[in-house]
Each structure stands twice: as C-alpha cells, then as structure tokens.
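In the design runs reported in the main text, the only information available to the sequence generator was the tokenized backbone. The following block is the verbatim input for one such run; it is reproduced so that readers can re-run the procedure and compare outputs position by position.
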C-alpha cells in the first residue's frame, strides 16, 4: 500500500512509497482503510521535532475511513463501519479516566512507541500511534470510533482533531459567557473552530488575529466580528475594551511569544486559553506579581478539554443542524502524491485545511 514517510526528524519533505505494510493486527486491534485525512499543524511540529515522535514515521492523525477487519475481542465496530481515527483514546480505567478527564488518559501516547508500519528497510512508526498519511492503518480498537453513514469521510476527518480541539476549547475549557469579548490568536483550521465555538456561545465580540490576510478574511465568514493582523491587536483592544483587555483570549499557535501576547491582551480576571502545541524548551515568562495581582486564569486545553467521544457526537449534531460550517474549512484537496504541496500550503497559511483523499 501507499504511505508518506518522513525518514529523519528535521526534514521538510515526505517520500511516498507503495510498498509499505501496516503491521500489528491481532486481538483488540482494527484494520482501517483510510479514505480522507486532514493536515494539522501538529504534523509539521512532529516533522520538525517540536513534538517528540520516533522516526522514521508516517505523519497524520486526523483521519477517517472504513473498517476492513477486526481482531479477536473487538465488538464495538465491525467490517464495513465508517470510523473516525481517534489519536487520543481513553482506557476508561486509569485515574484520569475515573475522574472524568478522559482527554488526559495516557493510553494513546503509549501507542506512539510501537511501530505501525514496515518496509523492507525496517520498521516505521505512526505519528501519535496512528499515521493517517497512509492508505491503511492498524490501530487499537479504541482508536476506531464509529460514525453515522451520513457523515462524509472528509468531514469526519476534521472532527478527528482540529474541529474537536477548537470547538472544545471554546465550549468546554473556556465555557464562554454570552456577551463576552473574545480574541483568537492564530486562525488556521483550529483557530477558526475556536471562532465558531465562540459564536455558538454568544460572544459579542470575536476578534480573529492572524498575519495572513486570507485567513483573516476567512475568519469573518465563520463568525468573527473583526479580523486584524498581530500589529493591529493593541488598537482593537483599545477600541473594543477601552484598553481593559478581552474576557477570553485563545492562543492557537503554540509559541511562548504569542502566549505572552495573549496574556497581555486578557483583562484582569479574564481567561487565557492555551490551545497551541508548543516545544518543551520554549519557556513562557511571567512574573509572580502579575500572576497574583491580575488574577488571570491560564487554562491549557488538550484536545478540546473534554470527553472526546461526547465531543465527536456534539460536533456531528451541530453540523447536521447547520450551526457550524465544516465543509468551508476544507479549502484545498490533494491526492496522497500531492502531500508535499499540501504541507507547503499549511506552512504558508494558504489553506485552512487541506484534505488528502486516498
């Protein structure tokens, strides 16, 4: 089968091979034919080494497809079922799961250290234990989440990461009050999903902040009330909040510099939500007096900060009702052979989400 492989961390191009084999099938496992996968910035972060991932590996973690085969003991899905590939499944048994914080379960991360593929040259890992830049993946049964037949594969793929992350940050983590003022720093696919979540919660002002003009223009179509470049954010803060700062500011980039900017534009007593996945050596500097005196809440949001399966169901319900636009997030489509073109589209900000159709 075909798959796109990164040989060494730090390389910026993938090699597409047609002699890759998905491995690891057996009891408790599921073989999935991938039909569509989105490109998430976390894939680039893994390729560059910002996010830890053994190499060589197949990137991709935002996918959907159909079940080809199930291993012994698997009852939740069967051959022919449509599924979303969940890169962060919950075990249901660890302390985090028992507390109801299933997004903090580490079971999924344990999969990242086991090879998912192989070629004649040796073993190949799958990013985040999945690796959806491939025509087929073998995953733990908990990673194959069944979806209704009316959900297209490309829409389902987005639900697998970016949309769930962005919507959840607004709906679960921040739990925005109606009438609030919101700023979203970074308006790719995840940031736009934050914008849509803020609109659903009734935010009065939603300021989209991004250096790329096309992304700012797109954000206005998804519910932002104003779109500005990073240099224009201080003026927006002054005009809309009298200089006080926004009730909720979302950092969707994953860098300490933009997180510091987000903190500075959050009002005293307001909420900063950190959505972007950053590097372990990128340190955020805050002084102890401002932490005490400003009483700003700093809330990290991992994968939407809530139960993943419930979030999938909620997203599908909102999409069916026309309350959120998922089709509009897909601005480009490419075959697997065009994967490097798609990566460039993401690096330059040309695309909100590129769908790779397999």
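Verbatim output:
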């Amino acid at each position: 089968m075909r798959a796109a492989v990164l040989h060494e961390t730090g390389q910026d191009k993938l090699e597409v091979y047609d002699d890759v084999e998905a491995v690891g099938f057996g009891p408790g496992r599921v073989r999935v034919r991938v039909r569509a996968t989105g490109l998430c910035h976390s894939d680039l972060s893994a390729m560059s080494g910002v996010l830890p991932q053994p190499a060589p590996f197949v990137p991709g973690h935002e996918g959907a497809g159909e079940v080809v085969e199930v291993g012994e003991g698997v009852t939740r899905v069967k051959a022919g079922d449509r599924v979303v590939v969940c890169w962060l499944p919950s075990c249901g048994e660890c302390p985090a799961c028992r507390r109801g914080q299933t997004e903090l379960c580490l079971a999924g991360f344990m999969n990242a250290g086991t090879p998912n593929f192989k070629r004649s040259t040796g073993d190949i890992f799958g990013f985040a234990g999945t690796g959806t830049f491939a025509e087929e993946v073998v995953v733990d049964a908990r990673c194959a989440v069944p979806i209704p037949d009316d959900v297209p594969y490309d829409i389902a793929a987005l639900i697998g990461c970016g949309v769930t992350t962005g919507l959840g940050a607004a709906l679960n983590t921040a739990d925005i009050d109606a009438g609030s003022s919101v700023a979203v720093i970074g308006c790719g696919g995840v940031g736009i999903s934050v914008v849509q979540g803020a609109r659903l919660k009734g935010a009065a002002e939603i300021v989209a902040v991004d250096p790329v003009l096309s992304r700012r223009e797109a954000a206005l179509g998804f519910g932002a009330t104003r779109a500005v470049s990073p240099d224009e954010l201080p003026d927006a803060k002054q005009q809309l909040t009298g200089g006080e700062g926004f009730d909720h500011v979302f950092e969707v980039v994953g860098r300490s510099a933009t997180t510091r900017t987000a903190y500075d534009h959050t009002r005293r007593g307001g909420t900063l939500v950190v959505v972007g996945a950053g590097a372990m050596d990128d340190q955020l500097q805050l002084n102890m007096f401002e932490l005490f005196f400003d009483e700003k809440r700093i809330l990290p949001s991992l994968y939407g900060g809530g139960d993943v399966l419930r979030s999938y169901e909620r997203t599908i319900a909102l999409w069916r009702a026309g309350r959120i636009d998922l089709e509009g997030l897909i601005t480009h489509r490419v075959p697997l052979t065009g994967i490097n073109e798609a990566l460039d589209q993401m690096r330059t900000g040309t695309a909100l989400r590129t769908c790779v159709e397999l």
